[in-house]
Amino acid sequence: MQFNYSFEVASLLFMLLILIHFMAVRQFPTAKTRVFRALLIVSIAECVFNVLSSIGLANAEFVPQIVNEVLAFVFFAFEGLSLLMIYKYTVVISELDPKQKKWAALAGLIPAVFFYVFLLLTPFIGFYYYFQDGVYHQGRGANFGYFYVMLFFALNFVMLIARRKVINMRERNIIYFYTATAFIAIIVQYFNRTILLSSFGNSVIIIMVYLAMQNPNDLLDTVTGIGNEAALELQLKDALGRSQEGTVIVIKIRQYQQMNMLFGTENGNMLMEEVGQYLFNLGGKFHVFRSESDTFAVLSDKGHYRGIVKSIEDRFAEEWRIEENHILIDYAIVIMHYPKDFKSIPEFFGIKSYLLSAASGSAVKDPIETDEKMIEGYYRQNKIEMILERAIRERSIQVYYQPIYSLQEKRIVSLEALSRLFDEELGYIPPSEFIPIAEKNGDIVRIGEIVLEECCKFLSKHVLSNMSLGIRSIQVNISVAQCMQQNLKEAILPILQKYHIPSSMIVLELTESTAINAPVLMEHHMKELGNAGISFAMDDYGTGNANCSYLVRFPFREVKIDREMTWAYFNNETARVVIGNEIKTMQKLGIPMVVEGVEKLEQSEEMERLGVEYIQGYYYGRPLPEMECLRYIRNFNSTPEDYGR
Ligand code: C2E
Ligand code: CA
Ligand code: CA
């Protein structure tokens, strides 16, 4: 039998080229890549032996029969193996659970055992092929070989269909495509047994997989050249899948945005490259990743992570160069051990960003090593997120009202609306806990609407019809996230109109951090809503690093001195001088003040002496539910002499 092996030679060249590229470019040692490497090597071996065997058969008169017999045998052995590898690749990207994996392995192994038993018998019983007078003939079982090939492609197909939800569309389409191509190659081969096409089929598969699913650039960060988030994910998935233990060190560069703004993106990128390179040299080839623009991750053994963290701290204690400037980088480190701290990828990303945002709020530099309490905190946050969503859906978020007392008029003249969240299991969840969560996930916008609507209902029901109550306005908190909306006006005014509330009765409280983070939008909203008659209070004055300049730029009707500031005033001599001066400045600017956190008569008297206009504090009333608050105000305003609790 004479074979035409020109397709095989061409395929061999293609596969060798891919092998060279594969070896030259950094590959992350993921399960996928390991199987691909095996497939590539086995396919090349299969192809080499196919060609050698064809040459040997074409020159049977010079080549001893035993040599041809060995070549044919080895070729068949590799052919069986390459099919198994293709199947294995499909299994790997199908992300099966351990039990499914066992079944999948069994489904591949049983036909393979048959194939190899027949192959081992072939030299004796001539099953796939036999030699007669040095000439190669196909055996009785040759068609079983075709059947075996078809079976594997059928298995691939079944796997694809069963796992279509896990395998992404692009990968799925590629597998469909190459399976179809290989299928056609087999059919052609079946009817033209002298044209060799098996390696051609393999090379089509390998090229497609390499281009589409094994492109190593998919896993590299374009700026730093180290692994990207997808690479980190794959590595972790791999390690978790094999029940390995290890440690992830996450390093977040704190003022990344500011540095980019200050030095330009290009220089910012160069700095990130330098940091990435430093970590790369420290952590090793496959262990360093840039997972977000400002976050790096280093994978280490449990035994070595302390040393790595120490080196990172030492390096970051020194300056980095950015153009001609030498700067210190502010950073936070989070250390997580797996599988103790996380057992899945979503858990890893969730806990990581939970801890990082906790770290970014504190000034503490020490690395944060994940402990049980933190993980509990993370799960509590998740739970609160769910509770919050349900509360929004069912509109079960409550609004409490806290009196604001006028020192001049000696009565309650206004109220601040404060959200309250109760849960059967967790009990009272304070706003200091759920508001930041709602700000982060965007729920704050809906909460703001609910609170505003409740306030309007309250005003319409109890205040508009009863002006003798003495309440002139309700103050509603607006968070940064709400201010980031383009159409804040459209979110607010229709609610007022619906309940016929004069806009002068609504005071929106904006915080210093809004003024810092979104000054332009804030100015825009203040103008638009101000034109509609709504006024504004600057909340939390003294907590950020804003100063009086904001008060000049933005038309605030009043400034609220934060309760921490108030307490500092009464507890600390220096603070007393500083805050006393700020109060004087504000008076000179003609801006009225609300002092929060006043809990004692002496404190109120001191503020009165300083010339403060309004007090909001437990001394004049705690936040209360609607009806209780109304009763409280009625009592209070009719007998202002014996105020207090
Ligand atoms: P805030 O706007 O500064 O509200 C005043 C906080 O101080 C309230 O805490 C109030 O209960 C508390 N407070 C008032 N007087 C005293 C006092 O004399 N002693 C003490 N110890 N505390 C006093 P609360 O209700 O826990 O709210 C905390 C923060 O959560 C608020 O601070 C506000 O920033 C935010 N928040 C509450 N409800 C909402 C809301 O509906 N929307 C938005 N965006 N934020 C809200
Ligand atoms: Ca407030
Ligand atoms: Ca406040």
Measured distance between first and last alpha carbons: 107 Å
Radius of gyration: 36 Å
Portion in beta strands = 15-25%
Helicity, as a percent range: 55-70%
Low-confidence stretches: none
Put simply, the count of helices is 24
Order the strands across the largest sheet as they lie in space: 10-11-13-14-15-16-17-18
Structural class: alpha/beta
Biggest sheet architecture: 8 strands, mixed, barrel
| Apparent shape | elongated
Number of strands: 19
Q: Overall mean pLDDT score? A: 91
Bound molecules: ligand C2E, calcium ion
Overall description:
The protein has an 8-stranded mixed beta barrel, surrounded by 6 helices. It has a 5-stranded mixed beta sheet with strand order 4-5-3-8-9, sandwiched between helices. A two-stranded antiparallel ribbon has the order 1-2. Helix 1 runs antiparallel to helix 2 (31-58). The chain is 58% helix and 16% strand. It is an alpha/beta fold. Bound molecules: ligand C2E and calcium ion (2 copies). One calcium ion binds at residues 539-540, 560, 562, 596. One calcium ion (CA) binds next to strand 15.
